[in-house]
Amino acid sequence: MQDEYQQIYNEARLILETRLNEYRLLHSISVADTAASMARQYGVDVDKACVAGLLHDWDKNLSDEELVERARGFGIEMADRLEDLAFLLHAQTGAMAVKQQFPGIDPEITQAIARHTSAAPDMTELDMIIYIADIIEPLRSRGNLTPLRTIAGKVPLELLFLKSLEMTMEHLIKRHRFIHPDSLQVWNSYIARERGM
Ligand SMILES: [Fe+2]
Ligand SMILES: [Fe+2]
Fold first, then answer.
1. Are 49 and 71 in contact (CB under 8 A)?
2. pLDDT at 77 (0 to 100)
3. Residue-range domain boundaries for the chain
4. pTM higher than 0.90
5. 91 C-alpha vs ligand 1 centroid, how far in Å?
6. Which fold has domain 3-194?
7. Which ligand is nearest to the CA of 87?
8. Percent of residues, the chain, with pLDDT higher than 70
9. Are 51 and 15 in contact (CB under 8 A)?
C-alpha cells in the first residue's frame, strides 16, 4: 500500500475502534479486505478500495437523531419519511465527516462512501466495488449471499452491481421496509441501461 493510504488506513483503524462497536469494526475491516481483492480482480485502484471500504461506515453507530442533526449541519438534502430512512444518512454524513478528518483525501473515496447505501445512477467502478463489498463481505449473513459471492470477480462489475442492487431491493420488499426514492431511481436507470434504452 502507498504510504499516503497506509497512513490514513492506520489512523482510521484506531479512530474506528472508538466510533464503532466490535461487530461493525470487524465488518469495516472485512469490507476493506473484500473491496481490495475485488479491486485487484477488476483492475481498480486497490489502495483506494481498501481505504474506502474501511471508512464506509464511519457514522454507522450514530443514532437517527444524531444523523439528522449532522446532516442538517452539513446541509445534506433529506428525504421525506425521515423517521424510516434516517439510518441511510450515515453514508452521506460519513463521507463529509471523513473529508473533515482526513483533509485532502481523494474525492473518489468519499464519493464511494456517500453512495454505499442508496447507490447512484452513475456509479463509478470504485463506487460499485464498495457497494458490493458491503453486501458480500464474509461476515455478512443477510439472506442467501452465496449466488452473489460465487459470481464476484467472474462476471463484469456492472452486472455484479445490478445483481447486488436486485438483492437489496428484494430484501427490502420482503421485509416490508421503506425504499428510498433515490434507490428506485437508481434501479430504473440501470434497468433502462440493461435494455439499451
Ligand atoms: Fe453502511
Ligand atoms: Fe457496511
1. no
2. 85
3. 3-194
4. yes
5. 6
6. Hypothetical protein af1432 (1.10.3210)
7. 1
8. 98
9. no
